[in-house]
Specification:
about 35% helix; Spore Coat Polysaccharide Biosynthesis Protein SpsA, Chain A; alpha/beta; globular
Length: about 325
């Protein structure tokens, strides 16, 4: 397969999850399910749902760095950013009800929402997935995400001691965090089924997928695990994490592995501040701003000035 002028003979879409955690209607719905609006837990902290206006700037990074993306799908729960130009030919807002089974609704669990991305109407055969707090930092061509044959690259962060890294942590901490536990459970399932264990963990940035392989992972390979998580309306231990789909693709030769460091994929933890200093130090291709239970509102106040300095020009996706 030869790419003409550096562009592939297949189309690539971009999918986001987005939520406005300050919307009164959404908050009422969530409180009816969870009994509380938010707390300081890993499961239900404010940072899981708060809207820091990251999507506006992430879309600016798309227009600057990956303008070749065909369509952009924004998956939401009956919401839409007020500044978004929904008439833009590249933009489509997708409601949870369009793609998710009724028994999973209402859903405040991103892991469960992600299972059904492949159901998005008119989704291209290949797509990129991003949370709204993920950004493109440099001009990137499609071959950054896919081989000439259309095989996606899976980017992982290598752990020095491999699978023993987290086994040793368990001895010290007794219980690992929810996110990494779910990742390791998916990796272990792939090892049991396909005989390969991937000790690298997700780079926590923009990922690439083949839609048909994603569908097969949900409907066939991990069907039992997916069905078991449908009633998890908020995050909890035991839910299958999307990274299992990538481990499966690697184990079956449907993806190519790339181990990455901070110079390629950087995670900026908001509670640590110094965003620009760290970004300039590593100058990665991709970066994310990770909100969590450790983040205060004072920390979050630094986000918009930082993003405005990086991406000051209004995109065509804004009204």
């Amino acid at each position: 397969m030869i790419w003409k002028n550096g562009f592939p003979p297949f189309e690539i879409d971009l999918v986001y999850l987005w939520v406005d955690g300050s919307d009164p209607a959404w908050l009422t719905k969530k409180q009816q399910v969870t009994g509380i609006v938010s707390d300081r837990s890993e499961t239900n902290n404010k940072g899981r749902y708060i809207n820091n206006d990251e999507l506006r700037y992430s879309l600016r990074s798309v227009e600057r760095c990956v303008p070749w993306v065909r369509k952009i799908f924004i998956v939401t729960d009956n919401q839409s950013p007020e500044w978004l130009d929904r008439d833009h030919p590249k933009i489509r807002v997708v409601d949870h009800r369009e793609i998710m089974p009724a028994e999973a609704l209402p859903c405040f669990n991103s892991s469960v929402i992600e299972y059904f991305l492949y159901r998005i109407p008119d989704l291209a055969d290949r797509f990129l997935f991003a949370n709204d707090d993920m950004f493109f930092n440099r001009a990137l061509s499609p071959d950054y995400f896919f081989t000439e044959q259309g095989v996606p690259y899976v980017r992982l962060k290598k752990k020095f001691l491999g699978k023993w890294h987290y086994r040793l942590k368990r001895l010290v901490r007794k219980k690992l965090g929810q996110y990494i536990t779910k990742v390791l459970e998916g990796a272990s399932f792939v090892e049991q089924k396909f005989g390969v264990f991937y000790a690298g963990i997700p780079h926590h940035n923009v990922d690439a997928y083949v839609t048909a392989d994603y569908r097969d992972a949900v409907e066939q390979v991990f069907k039992e695990q997916v069905n078991a998580s449908l009633q998890s309306h908020v995050r909890q231990y035991g839910d299958l994490h999307r990274s299992a789909f990538s481990y499966y693709a690697l184990a079956t030769g449907k993806a190519k592995l790339k181990y990455v460091g901070r110079k390629e994929s950087l995670r900026l933890n908001i509670h640590r501040g110094k965003f620009m200093k760290r970004l300039r130090r590593y100058n990665p291709a991709l970066f994310c701003l990770n909100d969590s239970q450790r983040v205060s509102d004072a920390d979050r106040a630094m986000i918009k000035p930082f993003l405005e300095e990086l991406f000051p020009e209004k995109s065509s996706f804004e009204k």
